[in-house]
Here is the input.
Amino acid sequence: MKIRFYREPRSLTVVSAILSIYTVVAFHLPAFRAVLDNIEKGFNGAFIFASVAILMLAVDFFFYYLVLYLGRGIGKYILAFTFIADAICLYFINTYEVLITDMMMGNLFNTRYSEASGFLSWGMLYYIMTLGLAPCIAIFFTKINYNSFKKFLGNIGTSLAIVLVVILMNMRNVLWIDNNSTQLGSLLMPWSYTVNSVRYYNRMKKLNQKEILLPDAEFTTDSKDVCVLVIGESARRENFSLYGYHKETNPLLAGDSITAYIANSAATYTTAAVKAILDHQPTNKLYEILPNYMYRQGVDVVWRSCNWGEPPLHIEKKYTHKLLKKMYPEADARYDGIMLTGLKEEIQNCDNNKLLIVLHCSTSHGPTYNEKYPKEFEVFTPVCNTVEVANALPEELMNAYDNTIVYTDYLIHSVIGILKEIPERRSCMLFVSDHGESLGEDNLFMHGMPMKVAPKQQYEIPFIVWNSGGNEELKLLDEVEQYHVFHSIMKFFGMRGPVYNEEFNIFR
Ligand SMILES: [Zn+2]
Here is the structure.
């Protein structure tokens, strides 16, 4: 019987199915543990668990079938490599409780052999010998019947169809997926190390990308100026009472003399939208962005951030959230308010006539809106605090989101307050959100839909301006774009040059 087993060719369908089941049982247990930790009891929790299981079986089957069919002999070596790598990753996950993220892959690539060899242990060897080698031996000793091309299409098509159906049936759990995908993705071999290696590589490539320098400008004024650009996160226009929302979400700004322009974002996700706020024109290329350009032209530039996703910055004073925490240990690091700590002193201590400050907020980023503001800003109650936001009561979800806008109102008002206390400088404040947010309209949540099909909630943004010279110095415009930021700040600092476009300037 044993000899017959090896001699008789096995259908590729059966081999792929067995390898797929083996992978799920041997290598995906940490991912299933993570799923169990992050679902709530009840039908939907069980549904998510079953969906992940079916999804993984189908995806693994698809992968193995594809690699073996197209790769033939070489395919076996590719799979052998993945099984060994799977075993090593599982060893790390189980032993060190690490997540195989892009940062982790970066650490791995940057580790010299001497450091890596410190990790070699009997434990790792045990994982490789048992979990890794067993499937290798099985595929090399099994004769595979590769079947017809028609069957190949049928099997590939069926597994893809299963994946699609599972995804479609989980549309209502899209928030849960969004919330947990990074963790799950980093626990599922071989996707974790392959996808995250590519992501790490792309990130490095982007960081090293050379930007196209813009032509120099000259300063036509020597007044002492400060401009604070506040970049909002997922703040949508229709929930600002300044723009007519029925709930009082802007109690403080209502008393400030501000101008609220109508604007649409250039994109619905952070990296592209933040780039648009900092770019001088719509472009896919990497031109010198506002802070880098200003810095090179001699403006003092300060970047304070509780967020991420901006193009590479080439300035001296870049304060990440981690750095801010170190600089101001007394501040509450959970909220964007930490960016205001020491801000007044920073402006007062600056001896450059032109000062640009950028604050990159994260306040309205979902899905846990209720965790993004201090308790005293919980004006609208009750709020939802479930991890499965699609199952939250719509009013509770909206209340939590509205409270983030109330907190944003406070942040913007505070920046204006700080600027008013420094009368020796002309000052202005621009608040522009990166994109909007869906909160259950058409059963959509969060953001990131392609612009062409995105609902208005995801791109209708607030564009709020305060100017120490008063509103008379601001143009009356029906609508502005994120590209107005670049040219308006140039105008404010009295800069002239070939790149300046009066059409995108809000100042008179
Ligand atoms: Zn964003």
